[in-house]
Amino acid sequence: MTTHYLVLSGLLFAIGAMGVLIRRNAIVVFMCVELMLNACNLAFVTFSRQVGNLEGQIIAFFVMVVAAAEVVVGLAIIVTIFRTRRSASVDDANLLKY
Amino acid sequence: MSPWLPILMAVPVVGAIVVALLPKGSDKLAKQVTLLVSLVVLVLTGVMAAGFDPDGDRFQFTAAYNWIPSFGVKFGVGVDGVALVLIALSAVLVPIVVLASWHDADGVKTADGTLITPKRSVKTYFSLLLVLETMMIGVFAATDIFLFYVFFEAMLIPMYFMIGSYGGAQRSYAAVKFLLYSLFGGLLMLVAVIGLYVVAGKSTFMFPELVGAIQDPTTQKWLFGGFFIAFAIKAPLWPVHTWLPDAAAQAPAGAAVLLVGVLDKVGTFGMLRFCLELFPDAAKAFTMPIVVLAVISIIYGAIVAIGQTDMKRLIAYTSISHFGFIVLGVFAMSSTASAGAALYMVNHGFATGALFLAAGFLIARRGSPFISDYGGVQRVAPVLAGFFLVAGLAGLSLPGLSSFVSEFMVMIGTYESQAHGSGALTVAAVISAIAVILAAVYILWMVQRTINGPTAEPVKAFKDLNVREIVVLAPLVALIIGFGFFPKPLLDVINPSVHQTLTNVQVPVSTIAEKGTGQ
Amino acid sequence: MNPAIDAPTIEYGTLAPLLIVFGAAIIGVLVEAFAPRYLRKSIHVPLTLLSLAGAFALVLVQVLRGQVSTAPSAMGALAVDGPSLFLWGVILVLSFVCVLLVNDEGHFVASAASVPGSADEEGAESVDNGSGHTEVYPLVLFAVGGMLLFPAANDLLMMFVALEVMSLPLYLLCGLARRRRLLSQEASMKYFLLGAFSSAFFLYGTAMVYGFAGTVSLSGINHALSAGSGLDPLLLIGLSMLGVGLLFKIGAAPFQAWKPDVYQGAPTPITALMASGTLVAAVGAVLRVFWVGLGNLDWDWRPVIWVIAALTMIVGSVLAITQTEIKRMLAYSSVAHAGFLLVGVMATFGTAEQNAVSLKAILFYLAVYGVTTVGAFAVVTLIRDPGGEAGHLSRWAGLGKRAPMLAGTFAFFLLAFAGIPLTSGFFGKYAVFAAAVSSGTQPGDPIGGWMVGLVVVGVIASAVAAFFYVRVIVLMFFSEPAADGPAIAVPSMGTVAVIAVSLLVTVGVGLYPESVLGIANDAASSLFIR
Amino acid sequence: MESEIAQITQHTGGVIGNAWLMIAFPLVGAFILLVFNKLTDRWGHLLGVAMSLASFVVAVLAFFELIGFGASERRRAVELYEFIPNLDLKMGLLIDPLSISFALLITGVGSLIHIYSIGYMAHDEHRRRFFAYLNLFVSAMLLLVLADNYVGLFIGWEGVGLASYLLIGFWQFKPSAAVAAKKAFVVNRVGDFGLLVGMFVIWTTFGTLAFKDLYGKIGEAGASDGVMLAIGLLLLLGACGKSAQLPLQSWLLDAMEGPTPVSALIHAATMVTAGVYLVVRSGAFFFPEGSGAALAVTIVGAATLLAGAIIGCAKDDIKKGLAGSTMSQIGYMMLGAGLGPAGYAFAIGHLITHGFFKADLFLGAGSVMHGMNDEVNMRKYGGLRKFMPITFVTFFIGYLAIIGFPLLSGYFTKDGIIETAVHHAPVLGWLAVLGAGITGFYMSRMVFMTFFGQKRWADDAHPHESPAVMTVPLMVLSLGALGLGAWLVLGGTLYDFLIPSVGGSAAEAPKFNPFTTPGLVTLALVAVGAVFAWMRYGRAEVPAVQPRGSFLTTFARRDLYGDAINESLFMRPGQWLTRLAVFFDNRGIDGLVNGLAAGIGGSSGRLRRIQTGFARTYALSIFIGAALLTGALLLVGTI
């Protein structure tokens, strides 16, 4: 039964990862990361159901909190960058290389 | 627990700190202090050497303090005959080098007043020199293999700076080449050292306890390889020799003397003590290939030397040839040859030292290392020419000069060695004897083009050696001639420990008795 | 079903260092919120330093009192065992030193929010000294807290939280450089995105492992493994994903890409903190996961780590050769060192004493390497151009003539990195390699030879690495100084102290390594709590 | 016949016990002159002479002390000190008839030449250094002949080589002199190679390098003939180098670049005869009569005596002419030395007489040059007998002696060699006879071109007799050239005297008898040669410039193409080899090293391009890394 959920979470994770790789806009990239985290959450919950203890579900809560914290930090950084460069494209920021 | 060696190692480094801490502008004082310290070391070494009993235990003046218990490393020192003579060699050379490079750091002017090297920090130079002396003494005195390794590697740094900041035009290239080359060898050796420690499983690095600890031949071969490559690079043996000409040619004459005279001896010394005694089976298994390399070095070095246009490079290549002889002697598995090799280490130090210094004095007057820029020095500076000639003759190991005795012993010992059935080594000895002819060519051709012939225009301005320079060369020449006729004192010290070594390698110590003419 | 939930027992004594640091961090936030601007710095500095010192003192107390706990604390969430305490001590010392660097004027932007070159930035500049924002300190404290938590975490969840607590402040700190702000912000964004990305992997890995073991506590996982319910792909996937997260943090190839950019862009004191503290914490975590959690799985992960270690050492040293920016070069060198540390991680298996040996080696390595690194970066902060630090190597030419002492010190640090004898770095390297060889020669190890092979790769890599360290020395000492050479900033007391301490340690340990080795030995002898 | 060789007895005390003084005196002299260089400029030459005379005195005293012993005890070994313990080698001296005869010759003729040089070098600013080198030579030469072991001999051997190098190159500012000096040393080194390897074999086979131990071991060691032959040939190679025998003769003619007294002392009287000494000294061991080695010696001798004579015929340079004749005469000695005990006596005898008359001739030539402001070309001489009578007379006596004019020294010794040769090895013997004839020709040519005919010298030349300090030694030497031979040979004096050293037995001492076929033929041929020379150079007009000669003449003028051969066979290929090696070292080996470094650097340069600076690329690398990691783990896991 749970396999479907796992597959789904896997898909979500993959989509998120792909998004990170493909999208240019920093915000979107960041959202994709969030998507990956949520994929993890889904997996946790599923497994918690599968193995029959509550740890997974508790973890999910932790993850949400952490994700929230990440949002705060992330947005702060992205906004600053946007204000200086007038662009939120990750590709524009490549002064540091080689 | 004898305090001798620790004191001997402490004095120079203390001196170095003192020199480094001297106030600005006290260059002269720095030089005097350095000279004083090195002389003190010389005296101490002399006194210690006087107390050495050739027939006593192999290692004397031993001392061992716990250094790094959790690695099983001791600060273990002690000398056998070979180590003693090499320490003495260093102790003799350092004051001479100090005196020789008196003005090296404060901007060398040529006879016609053009500046060869700009003014550089005198204090740094001389404190580096003293630090180097400590390490030279330490590396020969170490009976703990880890300690040996530490000095073996650490020695590179002061020399690296001496070449790099006080050398000639190509100095940084030469310095880096020298450092990386040796470092690479050293790191391979490090693996072997670790392996030795682990496999032996005695949780100690003390050499005497590790002799015979490795039995398995295959393991021996691997570890031997690690040690040998490092030593071959250091020695240097063909084909890993190319760092030496650059380093020696770029280094200031004094540093070059210590580099070729002492530092490189660590390689051959290491072969004699560690490669042979720790891994006897491997040593025997590899004798033939190594002998071949040695013979190649002898001939190849000599031939390439003939073709050099730069005096210091030429001398460097002659040294490669001579190191070939030493390595040949070490691996000839005959007591005569090994003793000859050990003796050669000392004699070569004196001979090449004198040659480098004499060449250095020439170059200091003209500002060019190229042979073609000289000619007819004899007319304007007969004393310099004379010393140069004598040093050169020592370089071609003229009988009556110290190098001859050792070279003769090496060759004759190799010839008689039955290590690989008669024949193999015999041939090696005969081939290497060809170097006797080549040596005459490379030295005398250089002499002909520098000392002899019509006096070149720029040479006319040469001043002859001043007192300082004579004081530098005279003792070396005296030693060269003295040991040329009376090598016995050195041999009496060397022989017992060489015999000990060969016994550990289970080589029948072919003595007079076996030759049957003993009275 | 019994409704009564018994309250969790918290060993406050054991966790005191953590609590102090976090407490101080929170107070710092409050200070930011309520204290008048001109007072803040004068409150923050003592607060931060004292809290770190206090935490260190408490660690010391535990060690000296011999109260090293042998059981997990906080209901199994944390394991404050010997190694953890050692790592804590190291992290605290390093961060303390880094804070001294942070104090130095002119590293951090007055107001991070202001747009570079804009009027309000100018304004912020004009009312400099005490007027600048001081959020740096609480952020640093939080980061340090995370670092302490990371290697001590005894279950994957706690580890994930620690990871984030450690990383998030660092993301921000990276963006706070005063000079070259574009670079700084870029660094911060890259670090953030990639960090988040990798931690997502870590989390997914956790999920998989949870799915396999039904628990996230390392001991539990280990138990499940020893129960030996086959090799579930779940487990392997999870393992690899965890690996990605952790290896990213220590910057092992192929996850090293962020390091040079971030190290270059970030304000140098923060770079120092990351290069020393973060690395220590991350390696600690790696050890705990791989050894405590997956100890019974080493047959599977060792070959992979072998490849990664070799790759890391080679990539690090080879790429560093052609770097022209000092901080980038040091970044690559730290990649190489991460590789050497992985060699040590490889060696942690087999008999208990073998574990102890390699553990000791790694701990020692971390301690000495961290100190040297901080020292090196401290020197970097002093070589300045009008536009900020003189990062480009060409600017360092002839430094030996213009500032012999400084150049000499830096040269010595470089030699330590290169692992030349009579420097602390040599003994670190030796310890790790020796551990690797001895582990390789354990009877009945199919890939024992490979261990020795890895060591050979290691020495070759360090020979290559030596080249670029030496190259800098050549620049500093053997080349003539540039006409308009960079200015040598008059160092603040703090910076002087930092450099002096690092030099002292590097030399002292180089001459008498037993001083630190002994401690590492004791710490390692009581292994990780399994 | 070996049996007649006397046992060596250890000796202490007396003059012989202190025979090392012979070596020490000149050594000290050289040391003082070289170390306190400028200080000794004024009296340096006198010190040199004194030291040489001092060791002559010691030699004479030692000689008389020696003949004080019975024939069987005339081999006294004096131990000095332990040299190389590993080779059980004690440095010691062996005073026996053979070595003492050499010692007398060296110190005697040496002292005379020292004295002569005072005058000859009077105008040279470096006269002091010249005497230092002469002293050095004398002491080295004495070590060579007195040492009681091969190593000691070798040290002296190289010592004289060094002295010869220094003296040939004494006027080193002339490039030709510098080159000649180097050539002499290097060619000698080729010989030394032989001697060196010879010593290896001796040590390895017999376990000793000391003469006195060898006697015991030759028989018992049971060395194969091959080994013995090898040793013999190797030693012969050494001898060839030192004594300018074929094929190592090329250096001697160039060596004439040195001041004439040097040519007289080193390249005529003493050093070049060291090879003969070596052969005779080792004769008892390695050149037994009729052995292959001995045969080789005789062949080399015969070949060289002809070659030298032929070269001598074509030279216009008086010194080179004499050099050629020296080669030739040493060839005779070698020939004799190869004939066993019978020949030894005559070889040594000829060596001694030759020492006198050849030194006489050289110094005479020197005196001529001295008067002709250093002109050496005989075509620019002529009719000098009126201007320098003493030189002429002494030179003429030397001339008669060398061509073997009856009753003069050369007559007895050379004839002795020829007789023995014809008796033992007829072919070679007759060649020697022919050689004698040629000698007659070229020596006469020399005398006629120099002292007879009409003057051909340049106007600025003012020939005059040399000062007494030069002429007196000439007279003494010419006395030796007159009578010495008779005294040594008649009644087998020398033969009997040498028996303890070289073997042979008083019973079969060769009786000297001039009226044998070879003897008479020799005289006839010499006469023919002389007359022929008279016709061409005495009576006829000598062209002042060298005419184009026949093929044979050119052949001789070019020293039988010796140099050409050396150049094309050794020098040129050697230079190529050197260039090749240097190139290989720089480009090959070092190129490899630097190439490796460059390779790493280059790969680094390319690799760092991967670091594009795009965050997404990094993310990709992480992603791929993760994928690979997973794949790998799954792979390992399933294995």
TrEMBL record, chain A:
For whether the record's keyword set contains Membrane, the answer is: yes
Instruction: Choose any GO biological process term that the UniProt entry carries and state it.
Output: ATP synthesis coupled electron transport
Taxonomically, the superkingdom here is Bacteria
- Locate the transmembrane regions by residue number: 6-22, 27-47, 59-82
User: Keyword Aminoacyl-tRNA synthetase on this protein?
Assistant: no
Name the predominant localization: membrane
Q: Where in the cell is it found?
A: Cell membrane; Membrane
What's one Pfam family here? Answer: Oxidored_q2
UniProt name for this protein: NADH-quinone oxidoreductase subunit K
Q: What species is given as this protein's source?
A: Nonomuraea turkmeniaca
From TrEMBL, chain B:
Q: Name one GO biological process term.
A: ATP synthesis coupled electron transport
* Entry's Gene Ontology molecular function annotations: NADH dehydrogenase (ubiquinone) activity; NADH dehydrogenase activity; ubiquinone binding
**Primary residence:** membrane
Q: What's the protein's topology in the membrane?
A: Multi-pass membrane protein
Which residues span the membrane?
6-22, 34-52, 81-102, 122-140, 146-166, 178-200, 220-240, 252-274, 286-307, 314-335, 341-363, 383-405, 425-447, 467-486
Assigned protein family: Belongs to the complex I subunit 4 family.
Protein name, per record: NADH-quinone oxidoreductase subunit M
From which lineage does this chain's organism come?
Answer: Bacteria, Bacillati, Actinomycetota, Actinomycetes, Streptosporangiales
From TrEMBL, chain C:
Q: What is its EC number?
A: 7.1.1.-
| InterPro entries, alphabetized | NADH-Q_OxRdtase_suN/2 (IPR010096), ND/Mrp_TM (IPR001750)
Report how it sits in the membrane. Multi-pass membrane protein
According to its UniProt entry, the protein's GO biological process terms are:
ATP synthesis coupled electron transport
Membrane-crossing residues?
Answer: 12-35, 47-65, 85-102, 136-153, 159-179, 191-213, 233-258, 270-291, 303-322, 329-350, 362-383, 404-427, 447-478, 490-512
What positions does the domain NADH:quinone oxidoreductase/Mrp antiporter transmembrane occupy? 153-440
Statement: the UniProt record of this protein carries the keyword Membrane:
yes
Molecular function GO labels: NADH dehydrogenase (quinone) (non-electrogenic) activity; NADH dehydrogenase (ubiquinone) activity; quinone binding
Keyword presence, Magnesium: no
What keywords sit in the KW lines? Cell membrane, Membrane, NAD, Quinone, Translocase, Transmembrane, Transmembrane helix, Transport
| Pfam families the UniProt entry points to | Proton_antipo_M
Question: From which domain of life does this come?
Answer: Bacteria
What does UniProt give as GO cellular component? Answer: endomembrane system; plasma membrane
Top enzyme class: translocase
Record's catalysed reaction(s):
a quinone + NADH + 5 H(+)(in) = a quinol + NAD(+) + 4 H(+)(out)
Q: What is its main location?
A: membrane
Q: Which residues form a coiled coil?
A: none
The listed locations are:
Cell membrane; Endomembrane system; Membrane
Q: What does this protein do?
A: NDH-1 shuttles electrons from NADH, via FMN and iron-sulfur (Fe-S) centers, to quinones in the respiratory chain. The immediate electron acceptor for the enzyme in this species is believed to be a menaquinone. Couples the redox reaction to proton translocation (for every two electrons transferred, four hydrogen ions are translocated across the cytoplasmic membrane), and thus conserves the redox energy in a proton gradient.
Tell me, how does this one assemble? NDH-1 is composed of 14 different subunits. Subunits NuoA, H, J, K, L, M, N constitute the membrane sector of the complex.
Protein name (record): NADH-quinone oxidoreductase subunit N
UniProtKB/TrEMBL annotation, chain D:
Q: Where is the signal peptide?
A: none
The membrane-spanning stretches of this chain are: 19-36, 43-64, 98-118, 130-147, 153-173, 193-211, 262-280, 292-314, 387-408, 428-448, 469-495, 515-535, 618-637
Localization terms from the record: Endomembrane system; Membrane
Query: Which segments constitute the NADH-Ubiquinone oxidoreductase (complex I) chain 5 N-terminal domain?
Result: 85-131
Q: Which InterPro entries match?
A: NADHpl_OxRdtase_5_subgr (IPR018393), ND/Mrp_TM (IPR001750), NU5C-like (IPR003945), Proton_antipo_N (IPR001516)
This protein's major location comes to membrane
* Positions of the NADH:quinone oxidoreductase/Mrp antiporter transmembrane domain: 147-439
**NCBIfam families, per the entry:** NDH_I_L, PRK06590.1
What's this protein's name? NADH-quinone oxidoreductase subunit L
Species of origin reads Nonomuraea wenchangensis
